[in-house]
Every structure is written in C-alpha cells, then in structure tokens.
Specification:
This protein is 15% helix and 26% strand. With 352 residues, it is of the alpha/beta class. The strands form 6 sheets. A 10-stranded parallel β-sheet has the order 8-11-14-17-20-25-28-31-34-37, with no helix packed on it. Keywords: Acyltransferase, Lipid A biosynthesis, Lipid biosynthesis, Lipid metabolism, Repeat, Transferase.
C-alpha cells in the first residue's frame, strides 16, 4: 500500500514545505508515492524518513528519502520535501501506523484449533492453528489469537485485542480491549507462594487463588510473565506498556500509563503508580508503594517506598576496568576511613 505525500501530511497533521529545486512541479506532492519508511541514512526513493533527535541532523542534508518529517527548526537544512510539525516523533508514529505491513497473527478460525463448545466467540474472531480454547472462554468481537496459544477456562479477552503465537492465558484471566500481546508470554501462572516447613522438603506450596486483570490499551512484550494473585488479583491497568522478558509477581499493581523496559522485575504485592517509567533491568522489592510519575534509570534497585515523584538511580555506571578496581578498593576502605575520621574529630575536640 502506498500513499501520496499529501495524504500522509493530512494523516499526521503536518505542513508540506517543498524546496526550491522541486517547486517546478506544483502537483509534486499529490503525485509522488510513499510506500515505506526508513532512517535518514538508508532511505531511498519512495521512502519517508524522520528527524526527531538533533544528533542525526547532519544526515538530513544528504538523505535520499523522498520526504522527511521534521520540526520547523530543521527546514533550512532539508533538501527534500519536508513534512513540518511540532512533534516529529509523533508524526513518525502515525506514519508508521499508516504504512504498517505487519500481518494479522491469524485469519479466520483454523481447522486445527480446538475450541470448547461452551466458549463464546464474537464477530470476526480469528484463531490460529493448534490453539486451544477451553470451556467458558469469552472472546469479544475482532479478537485475534495466534497459532499455538492456550486460553484457559473462563478467561475473557476484550474486543480488538490481538495475541501473537504460543501465548498462555491461564484460567479466569481477564484481558481488556485493544491490547497487544507478543509471542511466548505467560499470563496467570502461579505466583511464587510457599510456606516454609520442617522436614525433608522445606517448602509447602500455597495455591494461588487470585487472577490477573489487564486493562484496556495495554501492550505486553515477548516472553513476559505475569503471575496470578495469591488471594487478590494481579493488575496491569489501562494504557500500561511492558517490554520483553519482564517478571510481574503475584498481587502487583502496575498503574495507568506506566512503562517498563526489558528485563525489569517487580516482586510480590508492590504497587506502582500512574505514568511511571522503569528503564531496563530495574529491580523492585516486594510489599512497597511507588507514587505516580516516578522514573527509575537502568539497573536501579528499589528497596523501599517512593513517596515523591522524580528520577531515581542506583548502581555504578561502567568504567575502564582499572578505574573501577581503584574505586572498588576505595569503597572497601570506607569503614576504616570513617572510623579514623571519628577518632580525629574526637582528638580535635579534646584539644579545644
């Protein structure tokens, strides 16, 4: 599918600016076709690029893209058709949706799918090959379930939600509308609940009797695991986005519009507020509360409640090995240095 520059400009609400070298053809932007997107450095004829980060501005003058989405500050450096708007990154997002060629995860109901007779399927539902849908399941209109999925008893999936392949949705899980879940994710598996006991085997399993409730417009990346609650439910609320390989433990609540990057983990019964951001490899302790609008930078370790919005960090950035070894050696001497400072302070006090 291709679109003219004029059609794309209308969709992303951008102003078209044509360089002098192209103004000979007044209908250029009505006739020129855009079929895909690429970076400034690699785009060619018929492709649309964008500039949202000034780091790449030097590529603008030499790009071979047919058109570029840019801000007004960069127009003078652009030698091709410019689609000018205040937020080029949002323009990129809208244009990418328009030019998206990703296929549906399934089309129609495959003959090898196993669907219990008591399951309820809405209109225009698609179910991929070898998927199993158990009793009592409700799939709303326009739901798409990819190949090799398992949808457990009494699970509910809201309209226009799409699951990719090999996803397991356990019993009683509820997933809202317009959600997108990537391959190999597990939703509703048992939380890590055990009681310590004496004897040969030290741990007695505690059945996890809650479920998982996922709101509307939630996106979950590949190979992420969301455990069901022990008694109450685990919740991922409206608009949250979770990256790949994330672990959400039992009874966690992730607030509206919160974003979590890859390989982050949240231990049980923690509440994360609205519009928070967890960068990659963030670890959050259990049974704590994090207020709204908090940002944790990469590899932060969160061990206590956070009651004030802001940016929080922990850990030590990478450094040359020799420098890191020296710093580490100094850290190990902090106790003795602290003791020595106290002794000196006491000696000074005695001399006064």
């Amino acid at each position: 599918m291709s679109y003219t520059i004029a059609e794309i400009a209308k969709v992303i609400d951008a102003q078209i600016v044509i360089p002098a070298s192209l103004q000979e053809s007044q209908d250029f932007y009505h006739q020129c076709s855009i079929h895909s997107m690429a970076t400034l450095a690699n785009a060619g004829e018929g492709q649309l690029a964008f500039l949202a980060n000034s780091k790449y501005r030097q590529q603008l003058a030499d790009t071979s893209a047919t058109a570029v989405i840019i801000s007004s500050e960069a127009v003078d450096n652009c030698q091709v058709v410019a689609l000018v708007m205040d937020n080029p990154y949002m323009g990129y997002a809208k244009a990418a949706n328009l030019l998206n060629t990703t296929p549906a995860s399934a089309s129609g109901v495959h003959s090898s799918a196993i669907i219990d007779a008591s399951a309820t399927l809405g209109q225009n539902v698609s179910v991929g090959a070898n998927t199993v849908i158990e009793s009592g399941v409700i799939l709303a209109d326009n739901v798409t379930i990819g190949a090799g999925c398992f949808i457990g008893k009494n699970a509910i999936i809201g309209q226009s939600t799409q699951l990719w392949s090999n996803i397991s949705v356990y019993h009683d899980v509820q997933i809202g509308e317009h959600c997108l879940i990537q391959a190999n994710t597990v939703i509703g598996s048992d939380g890590f609940g055990y009681a310590p006991v004496s004897g040969q085997y030290k741990w007695h399993k505690i059945p996890q009797l809650g479920s998982v409730i996922i709101g509307n417009h939630v996106e979950i990346g590949a190979s992420t695991t969301i455990d069901r609650g022990a008694l109450d439910n685990t919740e991922i609320r409206d608009g949250a986005i979770l990256d790949n390989q994330i672990q959400i433990a039992h009874n966690v609540i992730v607030g509206e519009n919160t974003a979590m990057a890859a390989c982050s983990v949240i231990a049980g019964s923690t509440v994360v507020g609205k519009s928070c951001t967890l960068a990659g490899l963030v670890g959050v302790n259990g049974h704590i509360n994090i207020t709204d609008n908090v940002v944790f930078t990469g590899m932060a370790m969160v061990t206590k409640d956070i009651s004030q919005p802001g940016v929080y960090s922990s850990g030590m950035p990478a450094a040359p090995n020799k420098e890191w070894n020296r710093t580490n050696a100094r850290v190990k001497r902090l106790d003795s240095l602290t003791k020595r400072v106290k002794e000196l302070e006491q000696q000074i006090k005695e001399l006064e």
